[in-house]
Amino acid sequence: MTLVVDHPLARARLTTVRDARTDRPTFRDAVRDLTTMLVYEALRDAPVTETPVTTPVADTVGAELTAPPVLVPVLRAGLGMATAAHAQVPGALMGFVGVARDEETLQPTPYMESLPGDLAGRPVFVLDPMLATGGSMAHTIDLLVARGADDVTAVCVVAAPEGIARLGEQHPDVRIVTATIDERLNESGYIVPGLGDAGDRQFGAM
Ligand SMILES: O=P(O)(O)OC[C@H]1O[C@H](OP(=O)(O)OP(=O)(O)O)[C@H](O)[C@@H]1O
Ligand SMILES: O=c1cc[nH]c(=O)[nH]1
Ligand SMILES: [Mg+2]
C-alpha cells in the first residue's frame, strides 16, 4: 500500500528540497511541483464517470472524477502542498488539521481541526510532506476515521520506514504515496537523509 513516485522530474525536485543550500522560495516551489506529481500519481486509478463533451468538431465522450478526494493539509508544513493539490482537483473540499510535534517527546500536539462532519464513503488525501515517527499522521487519520473515513491516502514527500511501519500497524488500510522512503530516523526524530524541518524550510523557524 506504499507507492513511491520516482519519476525523474520528481527525483530532481526531491534533490532541490533535500539540498541545505536551497532558499525558502525555491523550496516552496519544489514542494508545489512535487505535490502536483504525487497527487497525479495518487489519482492514477481513480474511478471516472463518462460525460458527453462537444468539441469544435464533433460530439464525443469525456471523463470526470467520480469522487474527488477531500484534501486535508496538516499545518504548518502541509499548507505548502494545499494549493498545488487543489489545482489538480479544483472541485475538492478542503479540511485542515493543525498538529505540531513536541520535539522533546516526539509526541504530536494537536491545536486545530476543521473537517467535514461526515467522511463516510469519500476518499481523503492527507497532505503532509514528512512522515517521520508517524505520530502526526496517525493522529490526523484518527480524526478522519472518527468522521467515518475509510479510504485515506497519506500524500508525503519523504517517508521514514518507522512511520510507514506505524501506519501499517495503526491504520493498515491507509495508502501512502511518497517521493521517497528514506533510511531511518536519527536520535532527534529527524528523517535521515531527509530534508530537515519542512515547516521551517517553507515558512521560517518559529
Ligand atoms: O511523523 P512525526 O514524527 O509526527 O513528524 C512529522 C511531522 O513533523 C512535521 O511537522 P512539525 O511538527 O514540525 O510542525 P510544523 O509543520 O508546524 O513545522 C511534519 O510536517 C509532520 O507533521
Ligand atoms: O525530518 C523531519 C521529521 C519531522 N518533521 C520534519 O519536518 N522533518
Ligand atoms: Mg516543523
Brief summary:
The chain is an alpha/beta fold.
**Which residues sit in consecutive blocks of at least 5 with pLDDT less than 50?**
none
Structural class: alpha/beta
| Helix count, DSSP H or I runs of 4 or more residues | 6
Number of strands: 14
Globular, elongated, flat, extended or rod-shaped: what is the shape? globular
Count of discrete domains: 1
What profile does the largest beta sheet have? 7 strands, mixed
Distance between the termini: 35 Å
Classified by CATH, the class is Alpha Beta
Helix share bin: 25-40%
Question: What would the CATH topology be?
Answer: Rossmann fold
The overall pLDDT average reads 98
Q: Assembly state here? A: single chain
At CATH level 2, the architecture is 3-Layer(aba) Sandwich
**What share of residues are in beta strands?**
25-35%
Q: How much is the radius of gyration in Å?
A: 17 Å
Small molecules (ligands, ions, cofactors) in the structure: 1-O-pyrophosphono-5-O-phosphono-alpha-D-ribofuranose, uracil, magnesium ion
What is the spatial order of strands in the main beta sheet?
1-11-9-7-4-5-6
Order of helices and strands: EHHEEEHEEEEHEEHEEEEH
Pathway: Pyrimidine metabolism; UMP biosynthesis via salvage pathway; UMP from uracil: step 1/1
GO molecular function: uracil phosphoribosyltransferase activity
Keywords: Allosteric enzyme, Glycosyltransferase, GTP-binding, Magnesium, Nucleotide-binding, Transferase
Catalytic activity: UMP + diphosphate = 5-phospho-alpha-D-ribose 1-diphosphate + uracil
